[in-house]
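Hey Z.,

So I finally got round to the 1-O-phosphono-alpha-D-glucopyranose thing we talked about over coffee. Here's the setup:
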Amino acid sequence: MSSKVRKAVFPAAGLGTRFLPATKSVPKEMLPVVDKPLIQYGIEEAIESGVEDIIIVTGRGKSSIEDHFDKSFELEHLLESKKKSDMLAMVRKISDMSDVSYIRQKEALGLGHAVLRAKDLVGDEPFAVLLSDDVIASQTPCVRQLVDVYEQYNATVLALMEVPRDQISAYGVVDAEPVKDARFGDRLFKIRNTVEKPKAEDAPSNLAIIGRYVLTPDIFRCIESIEPGSGGEIQLTDGLKHMLKTRPIYGLKFEGTRYDAGDKFGFLKATVELALGRKDLGPAFREYLKSLSL
Ligand code: G1P
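And the result:
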């Protein structure tokens, strides 16, 4: 078994109902934050974390994702003839970024089911899972932070974040004990249990699972063994609970800012903050925001 995390899986077959009407015909993964589709943020993060192969689990109506990461001869030809070399480089960079494979999830039966669809493409090696809804701005890419833990502990690692009690029921939640390891400050945890979307009063802690995972390949066997859970779906969180019977799982409170860009308000926050951080747009946008009489 290769111990390097070389592959990343992007579940992208969901219907995006939180973002209707935009997502009626546009995949939510293709909604642009500033000028890049959500999924491109995740793919760049994976590549900056050392991942070489990208696997996207798609469904009906998602072909624009494939077009986005494909070569566009017409566009390249046009930009070349107009001598728009900066734009040409930008467009080429997207299709040259990495090898992308696609597999269909015919029915949206849950996140665990989506990950299971990637079983044959992943094979017997550890891999990352990134949910494109979660856009994470950080100095060290979030997946890289998880890979650093994986390389020390050789076990599954989840990204964790503290969430206010009144929002906890929107997440997978962990029961966890701190691990003393100076390399990770006080941010590393050993997971005791996982629960998908518990009621606030039943949540074992305020530590939520955020959409970044490094998983060992035995997760596939675990997902195959579970029944549908929350929302009648095959949940990745339940697969993780099953894995805990035989293997340790770690969680890392990652360093960085996470935006829930699959939600309209979170999407607005991501748009404003990422635009403010841009060299080309930030200064003028800041002045514009200041000029609004709010
Ligand atoms: C999914 C997972 C959940 C996790 C969340 C993070 O839920 O099932 O465990 O906490 O992503 O964004 P979803 O937001 O797809 O309902």
